[in-house]
Amino acid sequence: MSERQTKSLSPDDAGLSEAAQVLRAGGLVSFATETVYGLGADATNDKAVARIFAAKGRPQFNPLIAHVADIAMAKRYVDWSDAADLLANAFWPGPLTLVLPLKSQSAISSLVTAGLSSLAVRLPAHPLARRLLREFGGPIAAPSANPSGKISPTTPAHVLAGLSGKIDAVVAGGNCEVGLESTIVGLLGQPSLLRSGGVPMVAIEAVLGTALTADTSPDTLIAPGQMSSHYAPGATVRLNATVWQEGELRLGFGDVDCDLNLSPSGDLVEAAAHLFQHLHALDARGSDKIAVSPIPNTGLGVAINDRLDRAAAPRL
Ligand code: TXA
Ligand code: MG
């Protein structure tokens, strides 16, 4: 794709109206959500969605999430269900994505679904994302706004560091509050957990009144996170470090001596919000080794450990 000037748009009416204009014209706009920055395109425009893959250098077989302005918009594109109603009422707007059967004759680009007969939909909570969705008036396909395989962005500066010159604009919306991608629940058969994320699994199970299964549907063979090396910084990553080794940059958790601390008080919500930001910051210091303290595997810790496992996986 040809290099283009990436515009920084202000987080106000004028900036959002210009952002919606760029989307209507088939362009790419990065915008803040409460989880991470998204790289948005009109989800009904094949060419625009194709540009997302080009900008990210992303393998084409990975389907995208369609962000919607409200539940009514989601219902235009997917077959809604009672379970979807329960979860949407409990967690939308918020960091939860639902995978539902795609309506036949839907206007969604088949590049968004990667040809699957299901669609991932999400109603984000960030006020700017919601205003942009309303202003645009249609579904916005948006993966995280990072080059494929790299750490997800939680600030406009991260977005520009990875994608400047490759996308049309970024709406400067400050830091992302949750800092981890949405939890993805499959509702094609038995409710299943496709990706841990911003809403803890136990909270979802409490609302459903049933346990989430591991993914079983043949439709989601291309489940998220099957790419083993993902969220990877340039440095190698060593996990569960209780002693630090020579030459390592130390990413701590709890009351430990380290270079950057995810949460000195051991708070998992705070740790999630800092995760990608701290990985970016340590990576920028140029050492080839990062070591990370053990993170308890409860609540949001499950999602944090999932992302860290991928960051530490052997590179493809
Ligand atoms: O928090 C988030 O979810 C962020 C923000 C921008 O909303 N988005 C995000 O998108 O993380 P992305 O593209 O990085 O991850 C979307 C995941 C992918 O792993 C993909 O495999 C999965 O959603 N996915 C999308 N559609 C699917 C489908 N029909 N069936 C199964 N998995 C699907
Ligand atoms: Mg991503």
Could you tell me the number of beta strands? 15
Would you tell me the overall average pLDDT? 91
Largest sheet: 11 strands, mixed
CATH class wording of the largest domain: Alpha Beta
How far is it from the N-terminal to the C-terminal residue, by CA?
24 Å
Write down the Rg. 19 Å
Basic shape: globular
Question: Element order, helices and strands?
Answer: EHEEHEHHEHEHEHEEEHEEEEHEH
> Could you name the CATH homologous superfamily of the largest domain?
DHBP synthase
- Can you give the helix content as a percent range? 25-40%
* Fraction of residues in β-strands: 15-25%
CATH-defined architecture of the largest domain: Alpha-Beta Complex
Number of structural units classed as domains: 2
Find the structural class using helix and strand composition: alpha/beta
Oligomer: single chain
Strand order of the largest sheet: 1-8-2-3-7-4-6-5-9-10-11
Structure characteristics:
DHBP synthase, 4-stranded parallel sheet, 11-stranded mixed sheet, 17% strand, 316 residues, binds magnesium ion, alpha/beta, 10 helices, 15 strands, binds threonylcarbamoyladenylate
Tell me what you see in this structure.
The chain has 316 residues and is of the alpha/beta class. It has two domains: 7-214, Alpha-Beta Complex (DHBP synthase), CATH 3.90.870.10; 236-312, no CATH class. 31% of the residues lie in helices and 17% in strands. It has ten helices and 15 strands. It has helices at 13-24, 46-56, 71-75, 82-91, 110-113, 127-136, 156-163, 201-208, 268-284, 301-312, and strands at 7-9, 29-32, 37-42, 65-67, 96-101, 118-122, 140-141, 169-171, 183-186, 192-195, 213-214, 236-238, 249-252, 260-261, 289-292. The strands form two sheets. It has an eleven-stranded mixed beta sheet with strand order 1-8-2-3-7-4-6-5-9-10-11, sandwiched between helices. A hairpin with a 5-residue loop joins strand 9 and strand 10. The radius of gyration is 19 Å and the shape is globular. The protein starts with 6 loop residues before the first strand and ends with a helix. The chain binds threonylcarbamoyladenylate and magnesium ion (MG). Threonylcarbamoyladenylate is lined by residues 33, 35-36, 38, 62-65, 95, 97, 99, 113, 116, 118-120, 122, 124, 142-144, 181-182, 184, 194, 220, 222-224.
